[in-house]
Amino acid sequence: MSNLKWAFYKVRLSYYFLFLFVFFVGLLMIIPKVKLTGTQQTLFSVNSFLLGFYFTPVIKSQKDRIEELGKNIRAQSVALFKALVKTRDIQDKKTHDDVQVWVGKYIEATLASKKVGAGETEYDAMIGKLVHFNAKNKDAAAVNKVLDSLVDNQTNRTNFDMLMGRKIYKNEWYILMTLFIITLTLPVIVDLGGSPLFHIVASLLCASLCLLIVTLLKTNALAHKQAKEIWKPLESLLESDFRRVSHEE
């Protein structure tokens, strides 16, 4: 993610709303106004309905995606925790420590990337090393138990990649932005008279419409506040030196 995108996603939504409100208060003061005919008003009304009709399932889908990702990352954390618990049966200290280092590298890579395929190289390398562990070694049985837990976690990792890739498609963005721009045009250009109250109401409406798109952008990029919470189980597992899955435990 570029620095510009990161800066965009880092700003809180409340700050965006304040900035957008002030921006539209000024914009509405200089934009020429027009009086709409009945047909034009109907056209804008239909467009507004279509925007709401299309926007609602899209934002719901992204919120559901965040919720499912949270469950998936929690399941991965528990699976890794169980695998690490089984390392207690490994008698050789070097082997025991190596497994913990490999798991730690996988978690670090996942948290650093936070995208499709995050930690895949590290996980595959870890599995490969455990698969080729000397079968005649006294710790072979204990290592195999750890390996079984990590292999079972592959299903979670596959689902993780699917969920991470379930973003809004470009054609959906084209439709949303077209409907959004047309809907935003109405309160900007329509003649509401000289009342300051209607001017403020129109500015609030425009700011709210823009905030919906900003919220969708942040949700789609997993930069929303709710999305940031889903990584806590992995973060906690790493920060606690593999002693707990989340801060709540």
Are there runs of 5+ residues with pLDDT below 50, and where? none
Order of helices and strands: HHHHHHHHHHH
Total number of beta strands: 0
How many alpha or pi helices? 11
Please state the structural category: mainly alpha
Strand content: under 5%
Q: What's the overall geometry?
A: elongated
How would you describe the oligomerization state of the chains in this entry?
single chain
Distance between the ends: 32 Å
**Mean pLDDT over the full residue set:** 90
Radius of gyration, CA atoms, in whole angstroms: 26 Å
Report on this model:
With 249 residues, this protein is mainly alpha-helical. Helices cover 76% and strands 0% of the residues. It is built from eleven helices and no strands. Helix 2 packs across helix 9. The radius of gyration is 26 Å and the shape is elongated. The relative contact order is 0.17. The model has no long low-confidence stretch (mean pLDDT 90).
Short description:
About 75% of the residues lie in helices and about 0% in strands.
List keywords for this structure.
249 residues, mainly alpha
Topology at a glance:
Layout lengths: L2 H8 L2 H18 L7 H49 L6 H21 L6 H12 L8 H13 L1 H11 L5 H20 L6 H25 L4 H4 L3 H8 L10
Helix pairs in contact: 2-9, 3-6, 3-7, 3-8, 3-11, 4-5, 8-9
